[in-house]
Structure formats: structure tokens, C-alpha cells
Amino acid sequence: MKTYEALDIAQAILSYQSMSHKKLQKLCYYAQTWSYGVTATPLMHSHFEAWIHGPVAPELYSTYKVYGWESIPKTDSFPVSMSEDTDVKKFLDEIFRIYGDMSGDQLELLTHDESPWLKARNDLPAYIPSNNRISEQDMIEFCQEKLAE
Questions:
Q1: How far is the C-alpha of 114 from the C-alpha of 29, rounded, in Å?
Q2: What's the confidence (pLDDT) of residue 101?
Q3: How many Cβ atoms are within 10 Å of 122's Cβ, its own excluded?
Q4: What's the pLDDT at 77?
Q5: What is the pLDDT of residues 13-42, one digit of tens each?
Q6: In this predicted structure, what is the pLDDT of residue 83?
Q7: What is the mean predicted confidence (pLDDT) over 58-67?
Q8: Which of 26, 45, 70, 91 has a CA positioned 20 to 30 A from the CA of residue 33?
Q9: How many CB atoms lie within 10 A of CB 146?
Q10: What is the pLDDT of residues 104-134, one digit of tens each?
Q11: Is 49 helix (H, G, I), strand (E, B) or coil?
Q12: Could you give the C-alpha distances from 133 to 69, 82, 86, 119, in angstroms and in order?
């Protein structure tokens, strides 16, 4: 699969529905995680950090923080750069099918129980801020364990 900018993936995910910033972050995180897990390559030129409320891509945070607790509007379509990439469309369709019905808070709780975020937090209390990077290898291993279940 081709690698895209994080903002392109976010725009593609926003073509499914309007959503909170938290939900968008987590859906982008799961897209990146499962891309690593299935193809061993990143879906986007980005990394995620183990923040208090779950995985966050700093560049997405910078762009979408202006929405605060309000929903980010739905976009009209996939970004032009991705419009003919049927593989990424199918992949994101599947990510949204699995995780799209969950709220941002539900997705946050889900990530808090999973090894990539937990390992990056390195036993920090839940209320302590962190910019620790979530390991790509931990994402791969997490997916391998899930697929083996």
C-alpha cells in the first residue's frame, strides 16, 4: 500500500462522517497500526505518541485542535491524492467498519487496554502527560497477536 500524509488519511476518514477530534485520532491510529500489522509498512508519514487520552499524531492534533470538543465536519470525498487508490479505500472501509461505530471515549478506553499504548506509557500513571512515541514494532506485534486469536 502507498504511504500518505496524515492529513490525507484524516480527510479520507472524515469522508465517512463528522466526528470528534478524539475519534479521528484513534481511527487514524488504528489505520496506521493495522497497516503495520498487515503489510509491515506505514499507511501515513506520521508517528503516534502515548498521550493521556490515547494515541495522538502530533501533526493531526495541531491541525484539528481548533475544534475542541465540537465535531469536525464531514468532508465531501477522499483527497484527490487518494481518489484512485482502491486498496487504501477498501482498507479504510474495513477500519471504519470495525471501529467506526465507537465513540472517541470508547476508542480511548480500547487503546488504554492495548499493548502499544501501554508499553509506550512505560507505567506512567494515567493522569501524567507523555510524548513517548508508540513503537511501530509494538504495533506489528499487537496485530500479530490479534490475528492469531
A1: 12
A2: 97
A3: 9
A4: 85
A5: 999 999 999 999 999 999 999 999 999 999
A6: 79
A7: 97
A8: 70
A9: 12
A10: 999 999 999 999 999 999 999 989 999 999 9
A11: strand
A12: 24, 27, 30, 10
What is the three-class DSSP state of 124?
coil
Residue 66 CB coordination number (10 Å): 9
Q: What cell numbers appear for 41 in the block?
A: 509498512
Q: What amino acid is encoded at 106 in this protein?
A: Q
Which amino acid is residue 144, in one-letter code?
Answer: Q
pTM above 0.90, yes or no: yes
For residue 105 the three cell numbers come to 471515549
Nine-digit cell string for 40: 509491515
- Give alpha helix (H) positions in the chain: 6-14, 21-39, 58-64, 86-99, 104-112, 115-121, 136-148
The three three-digit cell numbers of residue 72, written as one number = 469536525
**What grid cell was written down for 81?**
491524492
